[in-house]
């Protein structure tokens, strides 16, 4: 059996995407030695509620950089293929650790964002949302007097309860759980494929580097671009006809 045949036979395919999905669009990840965000900033100090209140200028500089970088990038072929697979009933749910919104831009509708989105900012006090481009104009104050912050999960904050509950349920119901570009080091996202596996799902990892969960997967692909691999699967699904 091939991965493409598992895709064809699955009634409920769930996809988990991580930073490796976004780096193919040109976005820096956090940990790459020369190009990651850690090379320029210290997110563990800046991406915090404490920095929002007490190091606001540095907090804003960090997120302005991230928003500007995001605006310079766009979804790649892998994002677009997943959206197409959703339309064709091949993929039922995407769970993402990314905050770039590329899945939605590519056309995916059933997306669970575990860490929020850089597409909006909201007031820490009243919760009112605004497009993230206001942050680039230096707007940090809400009309209510509260402070604006990106609508992402900061270090030390819990994941959104609705999102994590939906992700657990999707994993429990999966026939096939496909991991794309995640090192599977961050909890609770790294537990989702194990939940799926325990409930009888096939478990596939496509990631540039090995992960600690590789021995538990039914198939593993390393050192390959995700977009290229998904395109090969799609050609097998369609017999080369598009």
How many β-strand stretches? 9
Tell me the quaternary state.
Answer: single chain
| Average pLDDT reading | 92
Radius of gyration: 18 Å
Report the β-strand fraction as a percent range.
Answer: 15-25%
Q: Strands of the biggest beta sheet: in what spatial order? A: 3-2-1-7-8-9
In whole angstroms, the N-to-C terminal distance is: 23 Å
Helix-residue proportion: 25-40%
Question: What string, H for helix and E for strand, traces the elements in order?
Answer: HEHHHHHEHEEEHEHEHEEH
How many DSSP H or I helices? 11
Low-confidence stretches: none
Give the overall form: elongated
Which sheet architecture does the biggest sheet show? 6 strands, parallel
Description:
- This protein is an alpha/beta fold.
- The protein contains eleven helices and nine strands.
- A six-stranded parallel beta sheet has the order 3-2-1-7-8-9, with helices on both faces. A three-stranded antiparallel beta sheet has the order 5-4-6.
- The longest helix has 16 residues.
- It is elongated and about 55 Å long.
- It starts with a helix and ends with a helix.
- The relative contact order is 0.18.
Layout of helices and strands:
Elements (H helix, E strand, L loop, with lengths): L2 H7 L3 E5 L1 H5 L19 H4 L2 H6 L1 H16 L5 H11 L5 E4 L5 H5 L4 E3 L2 E8 L5 E3 L1 H4 L11 E5 L8 H13 L2 E5 L11 H7 L3 E5 L12 E3 L4 H13 L4
Parallel strand pairs: 1-2, 1-7, 2-3, 7-8, 8-9
Antiparallel strand pairs: 4-5, 4-6
Helix pairs in contact: 1-11, 6-11, 9-10
């Amino acid at each position: 059996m091939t991965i493409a045949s598992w895709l064809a036979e699955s009634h409920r395919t769930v996809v988990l995407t991580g930073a490796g999905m976004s780096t193919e669009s040109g976005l820096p990840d956090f940990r790459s030695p020369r190009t990651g965000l850690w090379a320029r900033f210290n997110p563990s100090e800046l991406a915090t509620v404490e920095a929002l209140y007490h190091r606001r200028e540095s907090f804003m500089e960090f997120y302005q950089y991230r928003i500007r970088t995001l605006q310079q990038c766009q979804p790649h072929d892998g994002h677009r293929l997943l959206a197409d697979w959703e339309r064709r009933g091949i993929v039922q749910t995407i769970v993402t650790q990314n905050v770039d919104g590329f899945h939605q831009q590519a056309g995916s509708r059933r997306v669970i964002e575990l860490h929020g989105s850089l597409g909006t900012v909201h007031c820490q006090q009243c919760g009112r949302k605004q497009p993230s481009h206001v942050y680039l104009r230096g707007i940090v104050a809400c009309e209510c007097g509260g402070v604006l912050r990106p609508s992402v999960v900061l270090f030390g904050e819990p994941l959104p309860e609705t999102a994590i509950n939906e992700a657990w349920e999707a994993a429990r119901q999966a026939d096939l759980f496909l991991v794309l570009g995640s090192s599977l080091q961050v909890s609770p996202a790294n537990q989702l494929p194990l939940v799926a596996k325990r409930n009888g799902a096939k478990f596939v990892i496509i990631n540039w580097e090995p992960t600690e969960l590789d021995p538990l997967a039914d198939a593993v692909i390393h050192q390959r671009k995700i977009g290229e691999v998904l395109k090969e699967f799609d050609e097998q699904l369609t017999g080369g006809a598009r």
